[in-house]
Amino acid sequence: MASSVSSWSPRTVEEIFKDYSSRRAALVRALVYDVDEFYARCDPEKENLCLYGHPNESWEVALPAEEVPPELPEPALGINFARDGMKRKDWLSLVAVHSDCWLLSVAFYFGARLNRNERKRLFSLINDLSTLFEVVTERKPLKDKPSIDGGSKSKNSTKRSSNDGQAQRASKSYDESNGEEEDEHSDTLCGSCGGNYSADEFWICCDVCERWFHGKCVRITPAKAENMKQYKCPTCSSKRSRQ
Fold first, then answer.
1. What domain of life does the UniProt record list for this protein's source (predicted)?
2. Is 135 exposed, middle or buried (0-12, 13-18, 19+ CB in 10 A)?
3. R_g (Cα) of the chain, nearest Å
């Protein structure tokens, strides 16, 4: 049995949004990057299964919590039963819709004690992110994690060279590529918020897991990136600290 209960209880708008973003990133990974593994785990022959996204950005397909009522709102029950009765894309879209509802319910469960203005600010932060449904329906599921050549990104994006360890600015701008760049990297999603790649935004690549992130999502500016020898995303940094 899985437990979607966090080891901490976020209370402020910032803490709740961080929890929401982490759980959302986990579900983006399940529905996009790890979609084949997720699909295989949702065996219709098994009991009622749920898709959980955890605050450490990991996802899990498991039985629902046994507590009644559960400590946290539970995700949709029995997602595996409909798997073989629908087209794969339609089934993933359905799971995404239910997962969006679950993310909101958890966020506003934690935000029950927020005042009106705080709830409004929380929803505004959440609403700035694309929904899981938008991610799943507007972009094709990736078979592999994005691997992007350092010379093909926009001038606002950063990737470090393994040779000198210094941040390198790509020489090719969006205007010079006449839009080819957008087509080439249209499937690239931010490892934090799941947002789509855009050539007019600053992106940075983790040197460990090689996932790409909006600079704003990981609080890295272009100026800060230029002075970094190596960049590790929050997930990889936390893994290193636990070792």
1. Eukaryota
2. buried
3. 19
Residues 131, 151: contact at Cβ < 8 Å? no
- 157's CB contacts (< 8 A; 6+ apart) are 170, 199, 202, 203, 204
Report how far residue 163's alpha carbon sits from residue 200's, in angstroms, rounded to the nearest whole number: 27
For residue 235, name the pLDDT band (cuts at 50, 70, 90).
confident
pLDDT tens, residue by residue, 53-95: 999 999 999 999 887 788 889 999 999 999 999 999 999 999 9
C-alpha distances in angstroms, 220 versus 21, 53, 203?
A: 17, 25, 9
| 74-to-62, 77, 97 alpha-carbon distances in Å | 11, 8, 14
Is the preceding omega at residue 64 within 30 degrees of 0, hence cis?
no
Q: Give dist(CA 32, CA 9) in Å, integer.
A: 28
Task: Estimate the crossing angle of helix 88-110 against helix 116-127, to 10 degrees.
Answer: 150
